[in-house]
Design goal:
Blueprint: E1 4-7, H1 13-23, H2 32-41, E2 47-52, E3 57-68, H3 75-79, E4 87-95, H4 104-117, E5 124-129, H5 134-139, E6 143-147, E7 158-163, H6 166-179, H7 183-191, E8 222-224, E9 233-235, E10 241-243, E11 272-275, E12 285-286, H8 299-303, E13 315-319, E14 329-332, H9 338-354, E15 372-375, E16 380-382
Parallel strand pairs: 4-5
Antiparallel strand pairs: 1-2, 2-3, 3-4, 5-7, 6-7, 8-9, 8-16, 10-11, 11-15, 12-13, 13-14, 14-15
Helix pairs in contact: 1-2
Domain N-acetyltransferase: 3-165
Organism: Rhodotorula diobovata
GO molecular function, one term: guanyl-nucleotide exchange factor activity
C-alpha cells in the first residue's frame, strides 16, 4: 500500500489519539496530553503515514518516540525526553485497523529507521513489545533483548533494539584518541562539552561529602561510566547506599587506562555504592567469574583469572554495559549462578505484576543480603 510519510503536526494529534486508543488497551494507551507533549517536545521523532485521495490527506499510522541517555528502556527513561540522548525510545507504533495486513507498519518502520540512521547523533533505537509482535519488529531489523523490567498495563513486555553501525566505529575512534590524551585533559574536555558524558569525576563533583544524601545515605547524583566519551547511565540517584568499605578488605584491580588525575590504582576503595539487585541498575555489565585479586593485582591478571569452574572463582567484576570499561566494582556470587538469579527475580516481578502470585523461577530463591558494589572513585556524577 502506498503511503506518504511526514512529521505529524499538532492538528493531527486528535486523529493520532483515535489510532492510539484503537490500537492499545485502555491501561496501555497514551493520553491526549502525552501525545501532545511528544509532538511538541520531540516532533522530529513523530512520523506519520498518510494516504491521499482527491478530497483528503488522512493519517493511517504513526511512530512516536522520545530521546534518552539510557541504552536500556526503563520507566524513567521512557517518562522523560532528553533532547541530547543518543538513543530513541519508541513509545507507539500504530496503524489504522482498516489498513493492517497491508505492509503499512513494516514500511513505516523502514522509513523511520532510515531517517534515524541519517542522524549521526542517534546511536540506536529501543522499543518494548508484546510477544505476538516480536516477529514483526525482528523483520524490521530489531534484535530481541529479552523480557523488559518495564511494567505498563497488565501484560509483560519484551525489549527490542536496533543499533546503527557508526556507533561502534565512532566509539572506538574516540576511545583511541582519549586513551592517548593526558588524564587531566580528558576530564577537562568532558566538562567543556567536547565529549558526551554529562557527569563529573569525584573530585570535580564536589567530593564524597556532597554526593551522599545525609538523610538517606544514598547517592545524591546519577552515576555514569567514567570514560569521558561514554554517556552510559549506570545508576539513578537514590538507588545505591554508600558503604565505607568491605569486611574482606577487597582490592579492585587497576583500571586499564587512566580516567582521572591521578588515575585510580589497585587498592582499597574510598567506599562503594551498594545495590541489592542487578535490576536496580539502569545499565551494567558483568565479567566472567574470577578469583579475588591479590593486593598486587592488575587488570591484566584479572583478565587471565582461571575459569569459573576453579574453586573460589566467585567474583564478577562490574563494567560499563555500553563500552565494557572496568572494573568499576564487584559482586561475590558465593558460587551461585547469577544469570539464574536474575531470571528468577524477573519472573518474580512479572508474577507480581500479573497478579499470579508466582515467585522465583528455575533459578530458585534469590539470595538475601546480596551486594553489587560500585567504587565511588570509578564513576562520574551528574549533580
Amino acid at each position: 500500500m502506498d503511503c506518504e510519510y511526514a512529521l505529524v503536526q499538532s492538528a493531527d494529534i486528535p486523529r493520532a489519539l483515535e489510532l492510539e486508543q484503537a490500537g492499545f488497551p485502555e491501561d496501555e494507551a497514551a493520553s491526549l496530553d502525552s501525545l501532545q507533549s511528544r509532538q511538541a517536545n520531540a516532533g522530529d521523532l513523530f512520523l506519520g503515514a498518510y494516504t491521499r485521495t482527491s478530497s483528503e490527506r488522512r493519517l493511517v499510522g504513526y511512530v512516536c518516540s522520545t530521546r534518552t541517555a539510557s541504552s536500556t528502556l526503563t520507566h524513567d527513561s521512557m517518562a522523560t525526553h532528553d533532547p541530547s540522548g543518543p538513543y530513541v525510545a519508541i513509545h507507539s507504533v500504530c496503524v489504522d485497523e482498516a489498513h493492517r495486513g497491508k505492509g503499512v507498519a513494516a514500511n513505516l518502520l523502514s522509513e523511520y529507521l532510515a531517517r534515524l540512521d541519517k542522524d549521526d547523533s542517534v546511536r540506536g533505537a529501543r522499543l518494548i513489545s508484546h510477544d505476538e509482535l516480536i516477529k514483526l519488529y525482528q523483520r524490521a531489523g530489531f534484535e530481541l533483548v529479552g523480557r523488559s523490567a518495564v511494567v505498563h498495563g497488565a501484560r509483560p513486555w519484551y525489549e527490542l533494539k536496533v543499533d546503527f553501525p557508526r556507533a561502534s566505529s565512532s566509539s572506538s575512534s574516540s576511545s583511541s584518541s582519549v586513551a592517548a590524551a593526558p588524564a587531566a585533559a580528558i576530564d577537562h574536555e568532558a566538562e567543556e562539552g567536547d565529549f558526551r558524558s554529562p557527569g563529573r569525576l569525584l573530585a570535580r563533583a564536589g567530593g564524597l561529602d556532597s554526593l551522599v544524601d545525609t538523610a538517606t545515605g544514598t547517592n545524591a547524583a546519577d552515576l555514569f561510566c567514567p570514560r569521558a566519551e561514554c554517556r552510559c547511565l549506570l545508576l539513578r540517584r537514590g538507588a545505591g547506599n554508600w558503604v565505607r568499605g568491605h569486611a574482606g578488605g577487597f582490592e579492585l584491580p587497576a583500571l586499564p587506562r587512566p580516567v582521572s588525575a591521578p588515575a585510580p590504582t589497585a587498592g582499597p576503595s574510598q567506599g562503594y555504592w551498594s545495590v541489592s539487585s542487578p535490576l536496580a541498575f539502569e545499565n551494567i555489565g558483568f565479567s566472567r567469574n574470577a578469583l579475588p585479586p591479590s593486593s598486587s593485582a592488575s587488570a591484566s591478571s584479572a583478565a587471565a583469572a582461571p575459569p569459573a569452574a576453579q574453586a573460589g572463582a566467585t567474583i564478577k567484576y562490574l563494567t560499563c554495559a555500553d563500552c565494557d570499561h572496568g572494573p568499576l566494582g564487584w559482586h561475590d556470587t558465593e558460587g551461585r549462578d547469577l544469570g539464574a538469579e536474575v531470571q528468577a527475580e524477573n519472573d518474580a516481578r512479572g508474577g507480581a505484576a500479573e497478579g499470579t502470585g508466582l515467585g522465583a523461577g528455575v533459578g530458585g530463591e534469590v539470595r538475601k543480603g546480596r551486594e553489587f558494589l560500585l567504587a565511588v572513585e570509578r564513576v562520574r556524577y551528574r549533580v
